[in-house]
Amino acid sequence: MSGKGLVRGTPSDSSQVQLVTITPQLLAENPTPLLTATVPQELLSYQPTPYRIGPGDSLYITVWDHPELTSPAGTQQQTAANGRLVRSDGTLFYPYVGGIKVAGMTIEQVRQTIAEKLAKFVERPQVDVSIVGYNSQHVLLQGAFMKTDPLSITSVPLTLAQALGTATINADQANMSDLVLSRDGQNYHLDLAALYDSRGLAKDIYLKPGDRLMLPYNDSEEVYVMGEVMRPQAVTFRTLSSISLTQALGRVGGLNPITSNGRAVYVIRGANNLKNTPAKVFQLDARSPAAFALGDDFRLKPGDVVFVGAAGITRWNRFLSQLLPAATLVSSAAAANYSANH
Asked: 222-244 burial, b if ≥16 CB within 10 A, otherwise e?
């Protein structure tokens, strides 16, 4: 008899459910897909440009041999105290130079501009410019991160791997299969597990100002384990196809050794879409250790229901436990009726 067939029952039921036995042949025909990262070429080909200064940034401007220009607040003060804030209109003020429009300039362009204007007052000025406060350009973070503060874009290019390391993924709650990188009005869906398995591609993706990283929670990606197991519950995914049948059973404490039927381990798939596609019920005979090796190669999908049936003696005991109170009630009623008539 082949491993495929219809679950016996009413005609309407059997037409909507297909029973499939989990065998080595089935697993060979449906191997676990390898993690492969598909990254749009436009993400991999993007190369950061030199940092452009913006409103909110703070610049530290050094004029060699002129400490009164370099550190007007005093050399004993911290560097930040002597910084020059870029105002909301993109300008900053500098002695002898006045207001300068620096928004959109690179550090080198600002240095040259100040040096040229100071040359009218200082002979051959030696000017250096550095940024001591990066506050104008950010990458936004949302979702299952431990830290969701915006990440500043600096003169050192920021990679996706660095951003994720700084934000720290909440591994217990994150859906690692669907990181959404939003850029210039377009959303890119990335599988983080595949990215890290594919030559570390996450470190090859550079982020740009205005990018948004959204890491969804995995509370909607669950399988439901119920029946004769130790702790029936919903089990969440970290990545799609990351949980095997054996792992799911292990997370709930395994089969109940007293009440379960090892032959009746079922995976119900597609029950929520019966109008369009017949549901499949996969059956595993888990009475031998070899069966759990099969279960370890059988990957679950979000929405699957794992059900472990009861042993025959358990079903009989439950039948008796339900029958005896009813029989006692009937006997008591009969005895009361006999007493009333005699």
From this structure: bbebebbbeebbebbbbbbebbb
Q: Are residues 166 and 45 both part of a single domain?
A: yes
Is 87 part of any domain?
yes
Q: Within a domain: residue 36?
A: no
190-211 per-position pLDDT tens digit: 888 777 765 667 778 999 999 9
3-state secondary structure of 191: coil
Name the residue range of residue 115's domain.
58-133
Using DSSP's 3-state secondary structure scheme, residue 281 falls into strand
Taking the C-alpha atoms of residue 62 and residue 107, their distance in angstroms, rounded to an integer, is 13
Sheet of 179-183: strands edge to edge? 151-152, 138-143, 212-215, 179-183, 186-190
- Asked, for residue 248, whether it belongs to a domain, the answer is yes
Going by their DSSP bridges, the two strands 279-284 and 98-101 should be labelled as: unpaired
Q: What is the pLDDT of residues 16-53, one digit of tens each?
A: 678 888 888 888 887 765 555 578 889 989 999 999 99
Longest CA–CA separation in the chain, Å = 130
pTM of this structure: 0.65
